[in-house]
Write a structure and sequence with these properties.
Blueprint (H helix, E strand, L loop, with lengths): L9 E4 L13 H4 L7 E3 L18 H6 L1 H12 L2 E6 L2 E7 H11 L4 E2 L1 H10 L11 H15 L8 H15 L5 E3 H18 L7 H16 L11 H20 L10 H11 L9 H6 L2 H21 L1 H15 L6 H6 L2 H13 L6 E5 L2 E4 L2 E3 L4 E5 L22 H4 L18 H18 E6 L7 E2 L5 E2 L4 E7 L5
Parallel strand pairs: 1-8, 4-10
Antiparallel strand pairs: 1-2, 3-4, 5-7, 6-14, 7-10, 8-9, 11-14, 12-13
Length: about 475
């Protein structure tokens, strides 16, 4: 229960763990946790501020490797602390304590509006689902969920494989070097276009990439200066982006004989629930799923390629599994998960060791006390959800890419959060799983690849989200099999 005060109420969230050194014998961490008790606190200390440089603060550490920085600070300062980035102060909630809180108590304590407002404005929309909370967010999510579910791909696996084969034939020629991140962005964009609207984005792919990345860098994560929104390349990409969205709507045809897809649901919602999806927002909503693909699925597949090529024993196992899968035709989801353990293990380890969602940005929606420290209404918060991925308490030898890691390790409460947590958990997680597994099985079945240079060590780019650097390339040694 939450009691309110007449003047600026403070909500106290009883600590889920009394110390940042985890005790795995604790019933809270060994079993499904019960709902933490919420009580009133008259006062509480502010979180400890992490030392940093004048003005710059902790920006350099964040720019180098935000995952490593958050893990180090969690070990030093516990599950709540404050950092500074270029003069701006942020509270960080980290580790399994924060993950359990976000899973079960974020409603009423955390909000998303401020973080995503810049994207809403650039999309020229009334709102976007990611920027909403509470009942409106739940209602919008319920309408959009079917279009993002894995069931949308039922009967369409071969279609995804065909798109992948087409991209591999055009862009992955034997003897060439392929910039992996950019190639994966083009692949994922084409897959998403076909899935959400039955229309490939065609030559709009580069415009989509530029438009989304510029918004995320400038208006959302504020890693680039504002004048970049006025540059001609952005203005052209924005115009082309909306041109594509309008084309999707203009070319849409209802077909009762085919399964419903996202664009069908959005058009129907604009008629039945204009309070949530006004007609003026339709173009923005139709093209918004590209946000999910460019810096999540694309970066994850690029990281997957690097990790597998870096481990020749894993590469050999995945090639053998992929060959067996395609020998039976188009793989099913059951086959991808059950008959290809190295492939699925590599997928899980890529999500763990190369997280795209290192932290979720929120603002405090009320005053509350977390792990004994006060968080104030309105202040910006990093929810460092990926810290648990690197804790030996959950994952023995956590920096090792171990495709045979027992699945129970990922299922420990608070241990694994590749797609976010709580009300804003990624709607497309199931779809992303299928796209990644199908794309990687196809890639390693069709081609022999090698790192370029062979001793290459992956470097991260954190603009806008952590992922492999643009310079990451692979050499196409040759073709292994032809498309079915």
């Amino acid at each position: 229960m939450i009691w309110t005060m007449a003047y600026r109420s403070i909500v106290y969230v009883r600590p889920l763990s009394s110390t940042h050194k985890l005790n795995l014998q604790s019933p809270i961490l060994m079993t499904q946790p019960t709902q933490p008790e919420i009580t009133l606190a008259e006062s509480a200390p502010r979180p400890q501020r992490v030392p940093g440089l004048p003005f710059v603060g902790n920006a350099l550490d964040m720019a180098r490797d935000p995952s490593a920085f958050f893990v180090d600070m969690y070990r030093r300062h516990g599950p709540v602390f404050r950092i500074k980035v270029l003069g701006e102060e942020y509270t960080v909630l980290a580790g399994p304590e924060a993950n359990l809180f976000m899973s079960r108590q974020s409603a009423g304590h955390l909000r998303s509006r401020e973080f995503w407002q810049g994207m809403v404005e650039e999309f020229e929309a009334t709102t976007l689902m990611v920027a909403e909370d509470g009942e409106r967010h739940a209602d919008m999510r319920k309408i959009m969920q079917p279009g993002f579910s894995r069931s949308v791909l039922n009967g369409r696996y071969q279609e995804v494989i065909d798109i992948t084969d087409d991209v591999l034939k055009r862009e992955w020629q034997p003897g060439t070097e392929v910039p992996v991140v950019q190639a994966m962005q083009r692949l994922v964009t084409k897959q998403l276009g076909q899935i959400i609207a039955n229309q490939s984005p065609g030559d709009y792919v580069d415009d989509i990439r530029l438009f989304i990345k510029r918004i995320l860098n400038v208006r959302v994560t504020h890693q680039r200066p504002g004048f970049m929104m006025q540059l001609p390349d952005y203005k052209r990409a924005k115009s082309r982006f909306f041109e594509l969205g309008q084309s999707m709507l203009d070319n849409h045809e209802s077909d009762p004989e085919r399964p419903t897809i996202l664009i069908d649901d959005l058009i129907r919602a604009s008629e039945e629930r204009p309070d949530l999806f006004p007609e003026s927002d339709l173009v923005s909503e139709v093209i918004s799923p590209y946000i999910a693909g460019l810096d999540t699925v694309a970066n994850t597949t690029a990281s997957f390629v690097y990790a597998v090529l870096k481990h020749p024993d894993v590469l050999q196992r995945i090639q053998t599994e992929a060959d067996a899968l395609f020998a039976q035709g188009a793989p099913t989801m059951s086959m991808l998960k059950n008959d290809a353990p190295a492939l699925f293990g590599a997928y899980m380890e890529t999500l763990r060791l190369y997280p795209i969602a290192v932290a979720a940005m929120r603002n405090a929606d009320s005053d509350f006390v977390f792990e004994g420290c006060q968080v104030r209404e309105g202040e910006p918060i990093y929810m460092a959800t990926a810290v648990s991925h690197f804790l030996p308490e959950f994952y023995p030898d956590p920096l090792t890419f171990d495709v045979d890691r027992p699945v129970q390790q990922y299922r420990q409460p608070g241990a694994f959060a590749p797609f976010g947590l709580g009300p804003h958990t990624c709607l497309g997680a199931g779809m992303a799983e299928i796209l990644i597994l199908l794309s990687m099985a196809t890639l390693f079945n069709r081609l022999d690849l090698a790192l370029s240079p062979p001793d290459y060590e992956l470097k991260l780019s954190v603009a806008p989200t952590p992922g492999p650097e643009a310079k990451f390339r692979v050499r196409v040694v040759g073709r292994r099999t032809a498309a079915n």
